[in-house]
Amino acid sequence: MKLVAIVGTNAAFSYNRILLHYMQQHFEKIAEIEVCEINELPPFCEDLPVKKESKIMELAYKITKADGVVFACPEYDHSIPAPLKSAIEWLSYEIDPLKQKPVLIVGASYGPQGSSRAQQHLRQILASPDANANVLPGNEFLLGNVAQVFDKEGQLGDQQAIKQLNSCFNEFLSYIRILQADAREDKSFNSVKNPFFSDATVQFPTGKLKLLEIQQLLSTLPFELDFIDADDEFAWFSDKAQREHVRSVDDLGEPVKDCHPPQAVPAVLKILSDFRSGAKDRVERCFIAQGHPIYTQYLAVRDSSNKYLGTLEITSNVEHLKNLLETGAFSSEAGSVKAASQSTKESKENEADAVTGASQHDGSWDDTSSSGSMHG
Ligand SMILES: Cc1cc2nc3c(=O)[nH]c(=O)nc-3n(C[C@H](O)[C@H](O)[C@H](O)COP(=O)(O)O)c2cc1C
What we know:
2 domains, elongated, alpha/beta, 6-stranded parallel beta sheet, NAD(P)H-dep_reductase, Rossmann fold, Beta-Lactamase, disordered C terminus, Flavoprotein-like_sf, NADPH-dependent FMN reductase, 376 residues
């Protein structure tokens, strides 16, 4: 997580600056915080072209690239310091780097109030239509009596304050993740190429994979997958190039009966009902499409207590395998390969039985495994 932290004063010495440097070090394992200054920015003037003010554009660029912004705000005359107000005016006039940006406000003061009135004003300012930032609600970090709570090395000694800061900061990181997930959600419906949480990791009993790896792994499999959920709705398909069954994201969430050609619907519904009831676990179908031998398996997906979760459809063009079999790729004098060859012969015989009818290239439905497919 990359954050920009803005020191809300142009003074050479500032406890708010010390607070931000403390946060930079204290949270270094969970966030990369760049502390930025406003002391070199000119006072805001509507007549000056912002795009020629390189220091402002530099800060605006850093904000745009960051996942969020932290403002450390001193209190001057019950409000925010004028240089900070001026900086926000620059950042909200003709450019909009703060727009929808997650923001955390913190503040330190000599007195006990911890800049509370300035923080209220800063919230109002950042909510203005031109700034339009997303300030973390429900949390504020007010550090009073700063001259006592920081030591000479800039370390915070007040355990209660550290606890409060940790809590606010963790809330802020969660807030950023929620806003980022929200922003991605729209895109993910536009494109099946964007996993919803691209930086998530799933821990399986047999190892862990990043969500992006799962997505690409499923797209790399030499067969295509479709999943119909327990409510008989088309829930997901693998994003494989040149699919035999071309699917559209528009069909996601639709009842499965609306996603198949009318002549196939009764057979599909029968499979789903047999899977749901537990009568079957697997149905095979072989057919020729556009000159290719296509092998499709429907598999009931169940949880560890056998509750039906949905149906997985696996479709593959088996031309390559068929050619390998026909050209004797599995026959050899070598013992182990011979054994494999024998079992291939057996399975070939079984296959011949299994696909009778369906393999006559009429695309008809054949639940060839109905005899031995009970689960358990
Ligand atoms: C012009 C000016 C006005 C101030 N007004 C207030 C105020 O209204 N309330 C307050 O609590 N402190 C006020 N202070 C004190 C600041 O809160 C204090 O200097 C604080 O530490 C500023 O943070 P800094 O060390 O990061 O500059 C004021 C200080 C200055 C210089």
